[in-house]
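STRUCTURE:
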């Protein structure tokens, strides 16, 4: 299973990137073909339809292609003001915008429809960014993603990782594994269903 993992933070010491790294490692151990995407590596401006009218800018097409090529995703979201960060909204807005004049990308949801998405969050706070999830999940539904019923929020994130970047708490590891299991299982089932339809 091709799994895309990314965090909604470009901060050097990001807890959500650490969580994404741990999750990517667990997914590889489970046999998944993992791409850990660093959103900061992509040249993606703030969405502006005027810019878009001049041609899809920067690395937006590359981002669309990568997201489209992965049936399963894990998103690790920070919480900003009880919601998810603008970085994630901007990324998801760009990849769900149809490309004018390109019939292959006239379907705005080509990169997002049918993706099975696991939502994780990490925060220094006591709720672990849980409130960001309550905004991110409806956005993912709008993008026609299948969101895994299990989610996980890592509270007190600065205490949550050991020196090697592993999760200190066994319950936390089990929770991440449970989200991952659901995502990989459901993505596999949807792919099987698709194959059946294609035959
Ligand atoms: C935050 N932070 C934060 N944390 C939280 O638990 N609930 C919140 O509502 C907010 N609000 C908030 C707003 C803004 C503008 C910033 C910059 C930060 C703190 C945030 O969780 C913390 O900076 C994390 O470390 C961000 O995630 P990364 O970068 O570590 O992955």
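SEQUENCE:
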């Amino acid at each position: 299973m091709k799994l895309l993992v990314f965090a909604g933070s470009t901060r050097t010491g990001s807890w959500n990137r650490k969580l994404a790294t741990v999750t990517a490692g667990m997914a590889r151990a489970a046999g998944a073909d993992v791409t850990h995407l660093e959103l900061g590596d992509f040249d993606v401006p703030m969405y502006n339809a005027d810019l878009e009218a001049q041609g899809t800018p920067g690395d937006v097409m590359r981002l669309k292609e990568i997201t489209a090529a992965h049936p399963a995703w894990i998103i690790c979201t920070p919480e900003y003001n009880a919601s998810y960060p603008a970085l994630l909204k901007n990324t998801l807005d760009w990849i769900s915008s149809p490309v004018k004049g390109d019939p292959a990308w006239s379907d705005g949801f080509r990169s997002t429809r049918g993706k099975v998405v696991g939502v994780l969050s990490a925060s220094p706070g006591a709720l672990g960014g849980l409130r960001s999830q309550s905004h991110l999940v409806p956005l993912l539904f709008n993008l026609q993603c299948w969101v895994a019923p299990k989610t996980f929020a890592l509270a007190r994130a600065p205490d949550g990782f050991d020196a090697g970047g592993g999760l200190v708490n066994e319950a936390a590891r089990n929770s991440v594994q449970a989200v991952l299991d659901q995502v990989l299982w459901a993505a596999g089932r949807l792919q099987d269903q698709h194959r059946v339809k294609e035959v």
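REMARK: The chain has a mean pLDDT of 96.
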